[in-house]
Amino acid sequence: MSLDLALADPIGLSGLSSIGHLSGREKAAIVVRLLLSSGSVPAIAQLPESLQTDLTVQLARMSPVDQDTVNAVAAEFADSIERIGLSFPSGLEGALGLLDGVISASASSRVRRMSSDDYHGDPWDKMASVENERLSQVLQDESIEVAAVVLSKLKVSKAAELLGLLPGDRARRITYAISLTGAVAPGMVRRVGIALAEQLDTRPVRAFSDGPVDRVGAILNYSPATVRNQVLDGLDAEDSEFAEQVRKAIFTFANIKDRVAARDVPRIQRDLDQADLLTTIAAATGEDIATVDFIMENISQRLAESLRNEAAEKKGVSTTDSEAAMMRIVNTVRELESSGEIFLVANDD
């Protein structure tokens, strides 16, 4: 006889022993009282709230019980536990927790959408942990009344932050609606919380971890300059705003002078192939010349002079070779930044 079975079934296993005159709830109350008296704390909080309530009421109704009855109930309880071959999680959330990593995220989301009756715990605890940007979007999408309930259940500090993220007119309407929430029943408040918590849980699984701007920027970072410029010109014609965002996400040789701190140039130079530096110095044109000057100004001046003199003797460097050399220099900068050995300067734009 487990506690949740005994509480859910008033008859329970009452006919299996000489204590058959006791109901399942009475036996559960005796077991809980016995555990508490011995210093043990049964996991009652994991039961549904309705069963916790039933147990509390039953404890209040109990009369003194003789020792033989206590021993018989304890023996029955222990025997019932020993006969259990497998135990299963309680409710939908418990089942999903057991299968975490076994079923796909999309299947997990679908299961949650199928039923909200098995939701355990306080949904408002989850709502309180959701980042404000996501929660503010929910407040904009839901009705004014639902938004008022949400703000009423959250901490004052978090509610104030959320109001600041909403358009002024909507924030005022929600604030006024809070004054009308006094008559909302607790059950309705819980159902609102469950619906919103599950809505946040079932956010569609994204196929890509990065956004489209970052993905396009990463691709163009490794593309030859001619291809990169052609693509950006095409994007300008199709969607100038998206093209501008992609430009900001791109990190090329020309960006080194703006994104690399002068103090980090000697560290970068140690990992560079000198042949790449010579090729780049010899073939740099346009805004790439400024980056070459930036690198030369922040390394040993004797080395910089030697590199410039040697590069001046290089003739006929092809565009393909110079772009490949610049790309390898950019890759070195990126690798050092990823490993934490250098930090790129924030781009305010």
Short description:
The chain has helices at residues 3-8, 24-37, 49-61, 67-82, 91-98, 105-114, 123-129, 132-141, 144-153, 156-165, 168-178, 186-201, 212-221, 225-238, 240-249, 256-259, 265-271, 274-283, 288-297, 301-312, 319-338. It is mainly α and 349 residues long.
Describe this structure as you would to a colleague.
With 349 residues, the protein is an all-alpha fold. It folds into three domains: 3-82, no CATH class; 121-201, Annexin V, domain 1 (Orthogonal Bundle), CATH 1.10.220; 213-338, Orthogonal Bundle (Annexin V, domain 1), CATH 1.10.220.30. Helix content is 65%, strand content 0%. It is built from 21 helices and no strands. It is elongated and about 105 Å long.
Distance between the termini: 67 Å
Number of DSSP-assigned strands: 0
Helix count, DSSP H or I runs of 4 or more residues: 21
Name the helix and strand elements from N-terminus to C-terminus, one letter apiece.
Answer: HHHHHHHHHHHHHHHHHHHHH
**Range of strand content:** under 5%
Shape-level CATH architecture of the largest domain: Orthogonal Bundle
Tell me the Rg in angstroms. Answer: 34 Å
Share of helix, binned? 55-70%
Quick one: overall form? elongated
Summarize the main sheet.
none
Total domains: 3
CATH class of the largest domain: Mainly Alpha
